[in-house]
Amino acid sequence: MDKNFDGQPRRKSVLGAILNMSGPWGSGGDNGGGGGNGGGPRNPWGSGTGGIPSGGGKGASSLEELFKKGTGGGFKGGLPKRPGGRPWWPILLIGFIILWFALTSIHRVSPQERGVITFLGSYSRTLQPGLHFSLPSPLEQMTKLDVEEIRTIDIPEGETEKLILTGDQNIVDLAYSVRWNIKAPELFLFQIAEPEETIREVAEAAMRASVANFTLDDTIGSERTEIEQQVEQNMQQLLDDYGAGVVIRGIAIKKADPPAAVNDAFKAVSAAQQTAQTYLNEARAYAQQLTAQAQGESAAFDKVYEEYRLAPRVTRQRMYYETMERVLSKVDKTIVEPRGVTPYLALPELRKRSQQPSVTTVEGK
Description:
Elements: H1 14-20, H2 36-39, H3 62-72, H4 89-105, E1 106-109, E2 113-119, E3 122-127, E4 130-133, E5 140-146, E6 151-155, E7 163-165, E8 171-182, H5 185-190, H6 195-211, H7 216-220, H8 224-242, E9 246-257, H9 263-310, H10 312-328, H11 347-355
Antiparallel strand pairs: 1-4, 2-3, 2-5, 6-8, 7-8, 8-9
């Protein structure tokens, strides 16, 4: 027995003990403890009293037998061999290939979608709604796009201001939205790197170009619909030139106000303009009234003239009588006819005198 430097028996190292063991718990030859094989550890599951018996008088445990089966050759890779000793991996490989083909080669396209097929990264074709087949990935890959969904871009985002210069050198704060959807999926995917950002920038450029043709009052007032139509047309033309593959469905101006810094002053100016417009409307109404009256008098004169052309003498006499009646009806006069005619009684004058109060004079004594 080896001894250490102080004369005591040298203990075997843990590695030596493990190498001398025939199982995970050492040799099962000595179940009495401390004996055989150089004093190895006692097997708790040996063939001694209370143990599990094993063949040949050795205490190999069930765990050791399972370990030997797993590493010795009963099965490899964790699976038992097929009948005849053939391995399972060919069948597993075939099953994986079939599953891979099924998942990457069979495609179902919904009615509102279109499928874009690429072959080794290059555009190949566009699939219509229905069930389709393609080469497995990575040879061919499909990207589905919803071509009926109406997408919306709000400009500006949040509550920030979007200041635009008008045609009369004023500034207006505009907030609007753009509605669009996909027309050509292959162009939408491959022609432009960032389609949505491109649509946003094109909308801003088209809006600035259109507002520059209108005044501030027109922009915030009655011409908003015209501006929306111009922006939609300009955007569609520019995006078609880019080959973006999208359709602009409409522009909606949600806010058109002066900048917040001058909003109060602008309201005062607007109120003054509305007052001036009211006065102008009243003047126009009065002018139209006078014009209608003059036209009526002119029409009446034309009728008189027609009668005068037919009978000048009678018409002159009648006009004289009508004029004198209209003039003298407003004058308090007494007309005396020639001799032999009863004088005109001034009845209105007598009536006035009778209505005056009488004055009584009392003389002093």
